[in-house]
Design the sequence.
């Protein structure tokens, strides 16, 4: 199962300040409780748990940001080779930085997780998955979700605000990642989901 999906700012240029990483959108699917959470939490406990989950997601975003920087540094390319604004031509998701890493128990989740990520200019997209998940299926799903987010929400356009488009983001996730479940997506099935998605987003 997918535990969470997030969109965050990304600063892939070597030397960019890591502390500026911000989570723009997140959706937690899993019901894993935080360590030492009471069985029947009160209002104060629920708020504490909400803040704890927020910190967990931010920790993932920061690690993706750091990993992306290291990937670029290892490439040996100068910082000027990494654009921060949308180029005139469409972006191929096959060419964008991507990766996968493991999170051991307690750092930051109670159980170990696997994170798959894509970096598209100034935005990072990540799936936090249970370690037994099919990584190839998870990567294909992540690329599809990112493709439709970029196409329908115009996230890379100047002035575009991810936060204000949370409702449309939820619609896209509900089609391709319902309740955090990965779907086996063949071409015919994807085409059907595309039609459903276009109908929902046009309303």
Sequence:
């Amino acid at each position: 199962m997918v535990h969470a999906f997030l969109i965050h700012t990304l600063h892939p240029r070597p030397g960019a300040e890591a502390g500026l990483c911000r989570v723009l959108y997140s959706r937690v699917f899993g019901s894993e409780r935080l360590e030492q959470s009471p069985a029947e939490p009160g209002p104060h406990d629920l708020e504490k748990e909400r803040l704890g989950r927020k910190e967990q997601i931010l920790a993932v975003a920061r690690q993706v940001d750091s990993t992306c920087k290291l990937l670029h540094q290892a490439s040996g390319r100068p910082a000027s080779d990494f654009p921060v604004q949308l180029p005139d031509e469409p972006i191929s998701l096959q060419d964008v930085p991507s990766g996968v890493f493991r999170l051991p128990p307690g750092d930051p989740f109670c159980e170990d997780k696997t994170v798959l990520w894509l970096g598209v200019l100034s935005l990072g997209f990540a799936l936090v998955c249970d370690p037994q998940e099919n990584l190839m299926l998870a990567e294909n799903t992540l690329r599809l979700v990112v493709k439709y987010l970029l196409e329908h929400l115009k996230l890379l356009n100047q002035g575009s605000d991810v936060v204000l488009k949370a409702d449309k983001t939820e619609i896209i996730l509900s089609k391709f990642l319902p309740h955090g479940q990965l779907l086996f997506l063949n071409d015919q099935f994807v085409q059907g989901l595309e039609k459903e998605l276009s109908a929902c987003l046009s309303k």
Notes: The radius of gyration is 17 Å. Residues 43-75 form the longest helix (33 residues).
